[in-house]
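Regression check, 1,6-di-O-phosphono-alpha-D-glucopyranose case 543:
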Amino acid sequence: MSIQTISTTPVAGQEPGTSGLRKKVDVFQQAHYLENFVQSIFDSLDSVSGQTLVLGGDGRFYNTVAIQTILRMAAANGWGRVLVGQNGILSTPAVSCIIRKYEAYGGIILSASHNPGGPDGDFGIKYNISNGGPAPEKITEAIYARSQVISGYRISDAPDVDLSRIGQAEMDGMQIEVIDSVSDYAELMQSLFDFEAIRSLFSSGFSMRFDAMHAVCGPYATRIIEDELGAPKGTVVNAVPLADFGGHHPDPNPVNAAELIAYMNGADAPDFGAATDGDADRNMIVGRNFVVTPSDSLAILAANATRIPGYSKGIAGIARSMPTSTAADRVAAVLKIPCYETPTGWKFFGNLMDAGKITLCGEESYGTSSSHIREKDGLWAVLFWLNLIASTGKSVNALAAEHWSRYGRNYYSRHDYEHVDAGRANALITALREKLFSLTGRRLGSSVIDRADDFSYTDPIDASVSEGQGIRLLFADGSRIIFRLSGTGTVGATLRVYFDRYEPDKNMHDLDPQAALADLIGIAEEVAGITEYTGMSHPTLIT
Ligand code: G16
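Current build output:
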């Protein structure tokens, strides 16, 4: 076996977005495309010689092909050891857990998360650093810069490694360990939650439906919820990961997980419902005829954290991404702990967790987690809710209603306009940016804009500055409208418009969120001219 240096030329557009590089599968299949990006990652790191890399993906189409290529490149670049999930499968939270547990140098995750899979779908690649979290912007910018000047990559001509069997292999002096995809993660969950209490809950007849959406969480949820916690077989549905996610969009929200929602609204609905996404870092929590918004989920978990063994001593602080509702801020104020507001992107939470400033964090995009790892963690959130239900004896619906009655309710919704022409979408944001000054102090309907700005974040730990993170209209009554463009799509642009309105009156907590937000929705159209710019009179997705 020999190591070769292959000549290559830069490919335009290898700039990581909100969470790594995501493109259509056929883009990744172009000659040298994946190799250029992987070599750019390796070249952007301090010496990787002899170091340990964790490698795995969500099982989508092209996963195993990419894994074999990355193994050959890792060997050629001098990595000492690669821990790779059996059959190339590792969820995003599991990669984070394994990097931390085995003190690896970093990890590569192959996933386009909630984006559809299959030959016509999306593929993605992301590098995580030694704390287990996504590489910060300093590194992603270096990777991109490198990708634009690359002239060659190193690769071994060794044959494919058998990933189907747990065990050891060797490639050009590099050790390869094919590891069980689930066990390290399962052990971590056991250390945080009261498994005994959850077992008793299930043995008392409590029923649940967990929709793994034919994505990577299936094996994790089956092992933990059915095998270890004793939920009846069949509790986890769509449990086998498929390369195309069964043709569905593996995104746990009420639109894409419509089957689960219908089930939970039916006459025979179980007590509790949950779903996770392509790479198992997102989650949706569902009660009977009721969906918990992700922003509320973060606030409710924070308010009840001391009921959970892993958090019984309390939490140091909370962080939420800027567009996430301010429900968590109200909990932090009562607990007298800080609440940080970061740009969209999990990578912004890492420094706060490493510095011990926060314990819990979350985002409106169905992501919640804690400092147990450095990624969002779908199954963790589900187990947290199960533990909460077991320790309080209350349903999801009752826990949410009680929370609102104590803290008030943040009505919240996100409207997405997908596949918009990128030029038109950018023009909308530019026009808003130019109007910011004139919007401040303006009265629209019964609301006054207290402040209009383009969100900028200065990291409190390393003082790095991230500008242009979303247009905010902040109203005098605490309501907010936010406009930003998604950084995870692969076709055209997606405009996201976020609405957040606080309602303290407990007699007003049963409104339909779209009705409760109708005034703000009208103001967004008036201020931004969404229909004119996008050519769409309605959002393509409402969550
Ligand atoms: C990623 C990021 C999240 C972000 C979400 C949506 O999630 O990790 O932090 O909130 O994308 O980002 P955007 O609004 O830019 O599309 P995931 O689950 O796709 O990795």
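Comparison notes: The pocket of 1,6-di-O-phosphono-alpha-D-glucopyranose is lined by residues 18-19, 113-114, 281-282, 321, 344-346, 363, 365, 367, 486-488, 496 (CB under 6 Å). DSSP finds 18 helices and 27 strands in the chain. No diff flagged against the previous build.
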